[in-house]
Design a protein that fits this description.
This protein is 43% helix and 8% strand. It is an alpha+beta fold. Among the domains are: 39 residues, no CATH class; 91 residues, Roll (Structural Genomics Hypothetical 15.5 Kd Protein In mrcA-pckA Intergenic Region, Chain A). Strands 2-1-3-5-4 form a five-stranded antiparallel beta sheet, covered by helices on one side. The longest helix has 15 residues.
């Protein structure tokens, strides 16, 4: 996906979805320079009030893009929870925990990859071990007590050799423990919703899929 299109996704959604890694946190971020929807200036802000369906769709797209998932993948998580739980109040935290618990997201949260897209590629190329066993499925659900580590045969690759500089002032979320010397992370607890960093109305997402 061209970088210009990636930036347009954030501008269209009105929220950073961290698709370009470190650049999203810098003053060079397009959302800092142009925090408005793309398109001709004359057309911005036109149109009536957004419908309930439109609001729900927008919230769904925000969270889906935030985790870099395809519609079918994202819908699978939401519909599965709705089928099993029924109550939105119970489902909200469960959805966050499932999305945060994905192996590719954990790799990103540990600071090993600069973006979830990069993390997904690294996992797919079988660069990691989970409890000492190779796993190359980005959607693999991690659990409390699991240890995610870089394969010893891969730790001399440039992306991993430069981690010491990346980790210099880096601290992972409280539910993860990072051992910088061993290049591994441990799941200490279930992910905390308040540490996600995405301001999305998840109730609206469940309403969208309940239609």
């Amino acid at each position: 996906m061209p970088s210009t299109n990636v930036c347009k996704i954030c501008r269209r959604l009105g929220q950073k979805v961290m698709l370009k890694g470190d650049k999203c946190l810098s003053p060079k971020c397009t959302m800092v320079k142009r925090p408005y929807a793309p398109g001709p200036k004359k057309k911005r802000g036109r149109g009536g009030a957004m419908s309930e369906y439109g609001k729900e769709l927008a919230e769904k797209q925000k969270l889906q893009k935030y985790y870099g998932l395809r519609e079918k993948q994202f819908g699978h998580y939401v519909k599965g929870i709705l089928h099993r739980r029924g109550k939105v109040e119970d489902a909200t935290l469960l959805l966050i925990r499932q999305l945060e618990g994905r192996l590719d997201n954990v790799v990103f949260r540990l600071g090993i990859a600069k973006s979830r897209v990069e993390a997904r590629q690294l996992v797919s190329h079988s660069h990691f071990l989970v409890n000492g066993k190779p796993v190359n499925i980005p959607s693999f659900q991690t659990k409390k007590g699991m240890v995610i580590s870089v394969k010893p045969s891969k730790n001399q690759k440039i992306i991993f050799k430069n981690l010491s500089a990346t980790w210099k002032n880096f601290n992972p979320p409280s539910w993860l423990k990072l051992d910088k010397e061993k290049m591994e992370g441990t799941i200490l607890s279930q992910p905390l919703a308040e540490e996600v960093g995405s301001t999305v109305d998840i109730t609206a997402i469940f309403e969208f899929y309940s239609r």
